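User: Earlier you gave me the apo prediction for this protein. Now I'd like the version with pyridoxal-5'-phosphate bound, so I can compare the two side by side. Same sequence as before, with the ligand SMILES added.
Assistant: Got it. Here's the input I'm using:
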Amino acid sequence: MSNSQSETKITRRGFLRTQAALAAAAAVPMPALAAAPHTKSAAGVDYYDKLGVQTFINAAGTYTNLSSACMPESVQEAVALAAKKWVRIQELQQKGGAYIANRLKAEGCCITAGAASAITMAAAACIQAANNCRPIDIPRLIGTPQYPKNEIITQTPYGYDEGMVLCGAKIVVVNTLEEYKRAFNENTVMTNHENAAEVVKIPVEDWLAVAKEHGVPCHLDAAADMPPISNLWTLAEKWDLVCFSGGKGIRGPQSAGLLLGKKKYTDLANAMLPPVEGVARGMKVAKEQLVGMVAAVDWILSQTDEGLFKESNDRLAVMSSMVKDIPSVKTRVIVPAVANHYPQLVVEFDPKVIGATPREIRARLATGSPAIEINPHTGSTRASQGVDPMPNALVVTAMLLFPGQDKIVGEQLRKVLKNPKSVGTYDPAVKLSRG
Ligand SMILES: *Cc1c(COP(=O)(O)O)cnc(C)c1O
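And here is the structure of the complex with pyridoxal-5'-phosphate:
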């Protein structure tokens, strides 16, 4: 049971009370509410409980399998209102995209079904631009010689390449600047680079300059690279296209994302969105997600990096103060350089003194009551996204917590570090989620 749920319920109830009060004041009946059989369930049933789906406090970070962030209240309210009316989806796509482009000082914006979908949309738009074909033709590119221009150069193969292959792209992986220069030919339509790539062998300035010589657009995967908030506008000044995940730092709906950049390409991407039957037909963004994405951009622009960092640091200080007197425990705060650039608490300890490994502690917290997920980098033996290995440490984040949850996490950390077996269960055979 997290505070988030009770807070959500209070908000929704408050909202319905307001609606009821307004209707009573206007002395008109509310036929829509009375007639809608789903009204009651939408307001009251906790479907996580009903389905037996376990909830937990997310002290891990914006991990996909951990359902990333909970939306801020203003975003939740905008989504709830959006769910009560019909709109023409293409009009909402266009106006929502234009609004975000304006707010983020980008030439163009396409609201996508997440950053992974934005990568597909970028590839599809660039293939379309290079071959001068219609959006409707994109799915037919796959495996046909009819549209020969389909090569995308990437520096590092990564988990999202399939999103480009999906629209008929041929991926050309390069490792050196020489290979990169040689990889361009008349079929090259785009280059793709991951901002947080661990092995960066080709300097970004060279990457951009060589592509520019060939007139090939460059896409940057910056899915998890906010904060700093300014990345939302500075990156698109340098790159032709940039994608962000909507559900990570921006805290919008998890199935929304942004493709920002040159209007020529974002217009092509927008023209491919459902109901158009093409590569994006299965990447529909519902009205609730479209509005949620717009509201989340408004929300993040109402924040400051300093404010967000202070909030995290204050919460991590609460947790740290609750564990640092435990024998062998040492705490420090780190901030990864590019992706997930927010304060994270490293709780180092001697497993022999504590009587459990970091891996065991993580499993016990996840199965304890309340259940708490901490960062999967806990107990790691390899560096990841610029963070050193943490073989003897827990990694804890506070960015996504609701007020008061810092203390709950601190209490559980204290309990489990003082007496590991008193919290949750541990089965070494059970594989822990990568996040
Ligand atoms: C999370 C992530 C994605 C995918 O983002 P979604 O919004 O979940 O589709 C893509 N690339 C990188 C580098 C990411 O971290």
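For your comparison, keep in mind: The longest strand covers residues 188-194.
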